[in-house]
Every structure is written in structure tokens, then in C-alpha cells.
Amino acid sequence: MRQPLIVANWKMSKGLEEAKDYVRRFPGEVTGVSGIEMVVCAPFIALAVLSKMVQQTPLVLGAQNMYWEREGAFTGEISPLMLREVGVRYVIVGHSERRNLFGESDSLIAKKVASALEYGLAPILCVGEDLRQREAGQTKEVLQRQFFAALERLENEQPGRLVVAYEPVWAIGTGKAASAEDAASAAGFVRSLLKEIGSAAAQKTRVLYGGSVNADNIGDFTSCEDIDGALVGGSSLKEKEFAAIVRSVYEERRG
Ligand code: PEP
Predict the structure, then answer these.
(1) pTM, to two decimals
(2) What SS3 state is found at 70?
(3) Ligand 1 atom closest to residue 177's alpha carbon, by position in its atom list
């Protein structure tokens, strides 16, 4: 049984004070909720401070990006060891905003995935088609290419604590979530790709859906067999909204 995982991606939102207020207020919004892993991927500047604060909360800390080397002359970059030192456990890798706005290629993403795993972080690998690819019927082809390219550097084909987020680009930040059927089909396809790595990987790796998730539609996704949670952008920015998503998954799983 895979534990549900709900991940907040604040992107370039929230300064330190706002981030601290959120983490202070959030636990009160999820009182009584258990069995759901809740991750908040905060901007780098907040991570060191939040890592102490989250110890008293159900929240786990994530980062939104990292470089793959452990240290060196890489001006402006943050290494996996630095993230580990401040208590980060998850790191988003290959988000479509990084692929499209910052030119991150499949081979660069593969280095980040391998490095995150090597240094004890759980990479949340984002894969997903854009609108043109969807309309051309290329969704599976894109997922397959991004998935295998990103895992190319894994030694012994060990996905470790890998998480895969299916994030159709056209659904991110648009208010137009994928249909449950489309998300289930894509997540099922990702699971079939994981099976090609090995049955243990397919069984234990969590597959998330991301793209305009909110408290009203989360159940459409998490009720699908192959979807183990969500990566949430806009609706994670207010602690009440993010908590409502978490509570909805909790109620659904409790039956
Ligand atoms: C995201 O940024 O990964 C995302 C899913 O954003 P949103 O929930 O705002 O669509």
C-alpha cells in the first residue's frame, strides 16, 4: 500500500515571513489527519528556517530545484548536500517551467534525478505533454521519452525514493485540470513504464497528478488506482486551501 503524498509547490511565491506564517498556521488546519504525507516545496531562502519549524508539524520539507554536483564553482546554484543539511527530503526535478523557461533538457534532468537519489533526496520527477503534443495524440510518446531519459543514469535500475508526477503542461496554472479518465490513463501508463524497470519499482513508486488541482477536484484523481496524490501549485498557496485538499484525501482513504 503506497502512502498518499500531497505536495505543495509554492514556486516563486512567499518571502520568509509569509512562509513562516503558513507553517505556523497549517497544522491547525489538518488536526486529526494521519497517514498522508504532506510536503511543502518552499523557495530556497526559506528552507533553513522552515526546516526547524516543520519538526513540530506534519509537514515535510521539499525544494523546487537543485544542481547535480555536490559543490564547486557553480555560481548561483544549490547542491543536494546543501539541501540535505537544512533538512530537505524531496526535490522537484524537471518541472515544465524549468524545462520551458530555463531550457532544462532531458539529459540535464537525468543528472539531477541520479544526484538527488545518490545524496538521499527523493526526486519528484515531472513529466507531461504540452497542448500541441496532446492534440497530436503524442501524450504517451512524450511520457515515455521523458521518463526513460530522466532515469537513464540510474545505477542498477534502482528508482529508490523516486516519485513521478504526471503534469500535463496545458493544465498547469490554467484552471483547466485534466479529466479523471485522462489522468488515470496517463498515470497507468507511467506505472507500466515503471514495470519495465521492475515489479518492485512499479509497486512502490508513487505517481502523482498535477495541474489545476483544488479541494473540489482532488478526489477525481486520487480515487484512481494508479494516482497516489498530487503536486499542487496555485491551490497550495493558502494554507486553508492546501489543507482542504489534504483533508479530502484523508476522508476518501478513510472510506
Ligand atoms: C505545478 O506548478 O506543478 C502545478 C501543478 O500548478 P497548478 O496547481 O497551479 O496548476
Answers:
(1) 0.97
(2) coil
(3) 10
